[in-house]
Amino acid sequence: MLTNYLSVIRLNERLLPLLKKQKEAAIVNVTSIVAVAPGGRLPSYSASKAALHSYTITLRQHLAKTSVKVFEIYPPLVATEFSAEIGGLTNGIPASDVAADLVKGLEQDIADIRVGRTAELYQYFLSAPAEAIKLMAAAEA
């Protein structure tokens, strides 16, 4: 919670006075599909990303009449050394794919940037939440 949630809030609180003075500014919060369809093996991680997701929505509403835009990116498992322990190097997507989708989302002013298959899973979650959660649990098994 400290790294994935509270640190983001504290950083934003410190930067917002400066950002609000800019002609254009943006905040990009990195959540995860587990923010809406939690993963069974990662309960604390899922909870921290769900908290950040809720905060992002609220912050976007709070800053709606300012020059600060608030974006949320939902990357899937990414192939990095950081995610190696949970299979990221073999099962993750390249970080360059995440970066490309982020740039595209920012250019197109898309507030919720869902990377890779997270867009499909999100739509599945909207139509069948319990089934999407089961799918996430099965993927982790």
Low-confidence stretches: none
Q: How many H/I helices?
A: 6
Q: Please bin the fraction of helical residues.
A: 55-70%
Using the alpha-carbon principal axes, give the shape: globular
Estimate what percentage of residues fall within beta strands: 5-15%
Separation of the first and last Cα atoms: 24 Å
Q: How can the largest sheet be summarized?
A: 3 strands, parallel
Explain what the structure shows:
With 141 residues, the protein is mostly helical. The chain has one domain (2-140): NAD(P)-binding Rossmann-like Domain (Rossmann fold). It is built from 6 helices and 3 strands, in the order αβαβααβαα. A 3-stranded parallel beta sheet has the order 1-2-3, sandwiched between helices. The longest helix is centred in the middle third of the chain and has 20 residues, at 43-62. The protein is globular, with a radius of gyration of 16 Å. The two termini are 24 Å apart. The mean pLDDT is 91.
Q: How do you describe this structure in short?
A:
By secondary structure, the chain is mainly alpha-helical.
Label this structure with key terms:
single chain; mainly alpha; 3 strands; Rossmann fold; 141 residues; three-stranded parallel β-sheet
What's the structural blueprint in terms of helices and strands?
Layout: H1 2-20, E1 25-30, H2 43-62, E2 68-74, H3 88-91, H4 95-107, E3 112-114, H5 118-127, H6 129-140
Parallel strand pairs: 1-2, 2-3
Helix pairs in contact: 1-2, 5-6
